[in-house]
């Protein structure tokens, strides 16, 4: 009896391949970074890199393996310039230096990313094959980066209009996008500082969608923390605000009753207070300004403060300027020595 043994090659579960435009100023290597939380979406760090592959002379690259989680997560492919290292890499938005692509991957993904050969940028005018979610990510990229690059170079009188158009386009995209994780990427690109108050209902509704479709994920937890900062959602939904207010009024009433009783039963002495105690300048600060002041005193940078509080760096700078004004200082060093 003749037995035939057939050997079948075992292929890697996920494959991400493609072609980039590579000039002499770029390192011939593509890095894959995992976006563990929403704050890492545009952050470069050696700690986020999970893989790196060489680019051949024609610009081809290939990632393959079995080390990705089974669930969909954000990842970023990007190149570095020759004068960069893992620790100081930059993501360039628009123009001839456009060097990154965001994807949604899992351990079974089969994706191909091809840059337009007529472009000078590494990922210039790229195309994606593989998965509806990544086709949607490409569509999102076509909204974000040209608009972002465009409005950043406008005259001040045109800047606000451009920002509002970008926000409107992202809002429409997220409303019509059937893939919640892609929609979350769109909302994460919105300027909460400028548009949250006018679009509160939209953000609250989207938060419900995230919690319904992406329960217990790190991204949902990040978004909930961000929403809590901008809207005080936890206190409002759980009645915490009213519990706090009623408790405060009860304490205030008890204190007033005590002061009235003490005034009625205290012998008045001839000592007259002619001066009020000096007011601590820090009493002028709001709760959020005091919180940021504490971070400054610990030596945290603006970026670190923004990351810890889930707010934009521009918001941190705005709070710091108000702190300077209220405490009558003009610099960080003067603030720390005050």
CATH architecture identity of the largest domain: Sandwich
Uncertain runs are 1-9, 233-238, 267-276
Number of strands: 8
How far apart the termini lie comes to 93 Å
What is the CATH domain class of the largest domain? Mainly Beta
Number of helices: 12
The percentage helix is 40-55%
Structural Rg: 27 Å
Number of domains: 4
Largest sheet entry: 4 strands, mixed
Please indicate the percent range of residues in DSSP E strands (runs of 2 or more): 5-15%
Name the strands of the widest sheet in spatial order: 4-1-7-8
- Helix and strand content put the structural class at alpha+beta
CATH fold group of the largest domain:
Immunoglobulin-like
Provide structural commentary:
- The chain has about 350 residues and is an alpha+beta fold.
- The chain has four domains: about 15-130, Sandwich (Immunoglobulin-like); about 155-230; about 230-265; about 280-335, Orthogonal Bundle (Arc Repressor Mutant, subunit A).
- The chain is about 45% helix and about 15% strand.
- The protein has helices spanning about 130-150, 155-175, 180-190, 190-195, 200-215, 220-230, 235-240, 240-265, 285-295, 300-310, 315-325, 330-335, and strands at about 15-20, 30-35, 50-55, 60-65, 75-80, 100-105, 110-115, 125-130.
- α10 packs across α11 (about 315-325).
- The longest helix has 26 residues, at about 240-265.
- The protein is elongated.
- Residues about 1-10, about 235-240 and about 265-275 have low confidence and may be disordered.
